[in-house]
Amino acid sequence: MPFEIVPSLAPIAHKYDAFILDLWGVVHNGQKPFEGVLDCMAELRVDGRPVLLLSNAPRTSGFVVEFLEGIGVERGCYDKILTSGDMARIVLEDKRFEFLKGNAKKFYQIGAVRDKGLDDGLDYTKTANLEDADFLICTGLANDEVETPEDYRTFLERAVTLKLPMLCANPDLTVMRGERTIFCAGALAQLFEELGGAVELFGKPYPWAYKMAKEALGLDDDARILAVGDSMRTDIKGANSAGIDSVLVSSGIHAEEWGLMSGEAPTKEQVLTLTAQHGFNPTFVAGGLRW
Predict the structure, then answer these.
(1) Along the 291 residues of the chain, how does pLDDT read in single tens digits?
(2) Which terminus has fewer CB within 10 Å in the chain: N or C?
(3) What kind and span of H or E run contains 199?
């Protein structure tokens, strides 16, 4: 079997020097931490092993820290945090793409009011008029409780006609909020590309995310790192590409397709079907982030 199904992280954690944890679907469900997660995070940090939270959240890490504290994940539960919003902000700061160069560029943001921090203090202006924009920033759907990407098709078609490039600050297609599946910015970016639009994406599974994570951990190149995620498309693919061992947990987006209750591990056959679809494997599989 190309992966090992484990009951928890306790039997394998001693093999590693540091841990990279996804947030949504691993640490919490959008409303509260999963059962046993905080105890597991404390055990992982025993003997000074650092824990970094690597999230495809489309806002800068300070706002994510506030959100986590609000649902009971205190700042002392982890060592570092890095978001795709942080990465998008770095790109806005250094203007590495041609369409960002120059002064007082205008952007149209697609997303919710809570998606903040990307342009704070920078030389950009948010516009409410698509025709005035130089580019798009996509952080998600304005009301992801009721909207789907199809609600944005006509708008995105207009943006393609205007030849507006898009910065997507969250490559995730969907996420679980409680027991519901919610669309993310990546689903809008996917539709935009299908319509002929140009997109730059930041976060997992792209190599820069893992390069920054390793730098933030401050470990030697030969350090043994374990990444824990709930998504084959982002977490496991990204870890594999970075040469990092990984744990796929079934507490997130794959739980629905597997028909699992919270904390329940999938069968070997269920995982084999999933890995065959994607063409790669996690190192381990578990029901959740538990010790």
Answers:
(1) 589 999 999 999 999 999 999 999 999 998 999 999 999 999 999 999 999 999 999 999 999 999 999 999 999 999 999 999 999 999 999 999 999 999 889 999 999 988 888 999 999 999 999 999 999 999 999 999 999 999 999 999 999 999 999 999 999 999 878 778 889 999 999 999 999 999 999 999 999 999 999 999 998 878 999 999 999 999 999 999 999 999 999 998 898 888 877 778 999 999 999 999 999 999 999 999 999
(2) N
(3) strand 199-201
Within 10 angstroms of residue 153's Cβ, the number of other Cβ atoms is: 15
C-alpha–C-alpha distance, residues 29 and 21, integer Å: 14
Question: Tokens 């494997």, residue?
Answer: 281
Whether the CB-CB separation of 46 and 14 falls below 8 Å is answered with no
In the chain, where does the domain assigned CATH 3.40.50.1000 lie?
A: 4-56+205-286, 99-201
Cα dist. 150→131, 154, 186, 260 in Å?
21, 8, 13, 28
Residue (of 250, 278, 248, 241) closest to 3 by Cα position: 248
Class of domain 99-201: alpha beta
Whether domain 4-56+205-286 has CATH 3.40.50.1000: the reply is: yes
